[in-house]
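Something for you to look into today, if you have time. Just paste the record in under my message, thanks.
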Amino acid sequence: MPRSIVWRVRVKRAMESWVEVQALSAAQAEIEAAKVPGVINVFGRSAIRADESAAPEPPAGVRED
């Protein structure tokens, strides 16, 4: 039996934020995120594994000041 993993899903509450839910897949994670109290909307295809970064990596050679 597959083990569920933690997914981070982008949602809209009073302000846009992320929630973490337990699910077997990204699609199921979005369904579970919609059930979290206070969630108004779930952004489709926004689920990422919680152990991954939500921010894009800066291009190689680019320095942040």
Observations:
- The mean pLDDT is 88.
